[in-house]
Write a structure and sequence with these properties.
alpha+beta; SH3 type barrels; Immunoglobulin-like; 3 domains; six-stranded mixed sheet; four-stranded antiparallel sheet; 3 helices; 16 strands; 10% helix
Length: 337
């Protein structure tokens, strides 16, 4: 019969035998006394998480080749503000994700921007996607890819895309520009007529303040005063006096000063603007008298034709020459035009 050792002879314990104090402390020589299991498990999880994050960050970046023109970079793709370092032509960079910001015309037709992960841009700056090759082979046109659709949207990543910078709204204006001439009331003095606004050419006597300068500019009356004289040795005889092409309903006044047989006569132009005046006045005029025909109309510069009958001209056989004057609205004394 072989005698068995109390410890099994090979270092193992026999069933029902308690381990000695020495062996109880020597079974786990690597265990540090007093270290809780929870702390050891947490440290392991942190280490594994760090490795996964690094791997995920590396996998998110997609290499893209810049075109032969290079590209500017910006902090905010929505309004192209905060310019950064330019990406050199024909340079490979890592792209983290893409942002849809079609507000800038150069981003069309797709409207996307790339967030550049490579230094020195470090996931902060953006460049227009259509400036990259996006899979097109240099030297082998046509180049048809404006965006690499393999690049993920920034909205799907943990890092949010930059918020658009709000643009200020238009300044409050007055009433709407109803006639579409670009000027609103009260600057536009007639917002139902697009030809009336400040700076428009003023058309005299059209009843409109075309340039909004404070009223319609009066136009000139261009009527014709037709007169024929018959000369004798001592006086003149009027054989024709007629107004032609006057404004319809224009007021006509015939005045005589000096040695005259009348002072004033009044009449009105007809619808055609032609009016005979000879029937209204005596036909004989003495020297040192003055005959005057005035034609006036509302908001128009009146026309005055003045004839001075002088003795020395009669002796020389000369008939009076008409002097043309103007009569501004609201005045009574003619003046030179």
């Amino acid at each position: 019969m072989v005698k068995q050792r109390g410890d099994g002879g090979d270092g193992t314990l026999m069933r029902g035998q308690a381990p000695s104090a020495t062996r109880r402390h020597s079974r786990r020589p690597g265990r540090r006394a007093g270290l809780p299991r929870l702390r050891r498990a947490g440290a392991a999880l942190i280490a594994v998480g760090s490795v996964l994050l690094v791997a995920a960050g590396s996998a998110a970046a997609i290499p893209e080749l810049e075109s032969s023109t290079g590209a500017n970079t910006f902090l905010n793709p929505y309004n192209a503000s905060g310019m950064g370092q330019k990406i050199a032509a024909d340079t490979w960079v890592d792209v983290a994700c893409k942002v849809y910001a079609p507000q800038i015309r150069s981003a069309n037709p797709d409207g996307y921007w790339y967030r550049i992960a490579s230094p020195p841009w470090n996931n902060v700056y953006y460049a227009v996607a259509n400036t990259f090759r996006n899979g097109d082979i240099p030297g082998h046109p046509p180049y048809i890819h404006s965006t690499d659709w393999a690049v993920p949207d920034c909205s799907t990543l943990s890092a949010p895309a930059p918020s658009p910078t709000p643009t200020p709204g238009p300044a409050p204006v007055g009433p709407s520009d109803r006639d579409g001439d670009g000027v609103s009331p009260p600057v536009d003095c007639l917002d139902t007529n697009s030809s009336v606004h400040p700076g428009a050419p003023e058309i005299p006597a059209n009843g409109l303040d075309d340039d909004c300068a404070g009223g319609d500019r009066p136009g000139k009356i261009l009527a014709l005063v037709a007169v024929n004289w018959k000369l004798t040795q001592s006086h003149l005889r009027l054989v024709r006096l007629r107004v032609e092409d006057a404004p319809p309903s224009a007021q006509i006044a015939i005045l005589c000063r000096g040695k005259c047989r009348f002072r004033t006569r009044h009449t009105q132009a007809g619808a055609t603007g032609h009016t005979a005046l000879l029937r209204l006045i005596p036909r004989r005029f003495r020297p040192r008298s003055t005959l005057e025909v005035r034609i006036t109309a509302p908001n128009m510069i009146g026309k005055v034709v003045r004839y001075r009958i002088l003795r020395h001209r009669i002796r020389r056989g000369q008939i009076p020459l008409g002097q043309r004057l103007c009569l501004p609205p609201g005045t009574t004394r003619p003046r030179r035009c």
